[in-house]
Amino acid sequence: MTDVEVFENYESEVRSYCRSFPAVFTTSKGSIMKDENGKEYIDFFCGAGALNYGHNNDYIKEKMVAYLMSDGIMHSMDMMTVPKKEFLQFFEEKVLQPRGLNFKVMFPGPTGTNGVEAALKLARKVKKRNQIWALMGCFHGMTLGALSLTSDAGSRGGAGVCLNDVTHIPAPYMFPELDTIKYMETLLTDDHSGVEKPAAIIIETVQAEGGVHVFSNEYLQGVRALCDKYDILMIVDDIQVGCARTGTFFSFERAGIVPDMFVMSKSIGGYGMPFALTMFKPELDIWSPGEHNGTFRGNQLSMVAAKAGLEYMLDHKVEAEVKRKEGIIRKYMDENIARPGVEIRGIGCIWGVQVADGKLALAICNKCFEKGLIMERAGRDNNVLKLMPALVATDDELMRGLDIIRDSMNELM
Length: 413
What we know:
about 15% strand; globular; CATH 3.40.640.10
């Protein structure tokens, strides 16, 4: 039995990424992954945003190994531990306070969807309303509450039950002639709108899975003002585009806004470790002890890795590096990728290249994989090439990956 047959015979049909990248991978470092045949691949997938600091980052690995060798606490539910204390202090003093942010930290289960579920539950508890508003084109997770927010039909179809208590609002790019802020205000003020006032509006500042749609600062400010005016909580889902992916550690910083809640996961785990945070303003912290919990909330090794990741981010000025690399990518896109029938969108180190249809996008991604580049698709009909290089990728790795995309597009278009 070949290695591939092992997966085909024994693993569930639900598997997905291995179908797009049919190789058995063995080692990885920085932006490079190797398969069992020794072939190297440049990684523009980045663990779906969980590996901002690259594969096997030496600084973070050293901290994790040292903690493992010390016989430190590995599992503690939500008991007080040194890793938790050190993470909380560092996050507060080095990340939140310098940005003028005052938030309580909640450790839900270790994935992004766990963080979203906690935010939804708390928002409804605080406002005593059951409705949540989300945008069409969004992705917020695959557990039932988060899935009720998520808009793509394929994901929703797997629920098996009705997904209730969410109203989906057109995203601003869908109808350029429609003022969607005014549209939401009309839903709130028109006594014949038929739509209930929500407890919260949840939003990604960049719709990543939706096709890399970057919401303008003005739009984000408009949502913030609407929430303030009508006593609605603003929740930012920073799971995929946080941790400096857009050029600031929190993606909402560029708009000069402060949400009432935000959720982080993926690269907040530092090393690809499972970790999630649900953050909220102190006055919203009305939880009763144990009212929301989970056996693996606050994974200790993840806290060690998370603190080390933050240290690495600050010491290596990753935010400034991302802004510099944004210029490199934007210039390359304009000079080598732009062409009739192609739409390019992006910010920082997340970019989308929209082509005619999903079939062409799949062919391009497959060709890129043959040439040694791992990249996924996103958007409607999966017609968007989604570029997410590691934030620490070298300029040479960045250019080599972009060259593969250019060459693959030239061959197929």
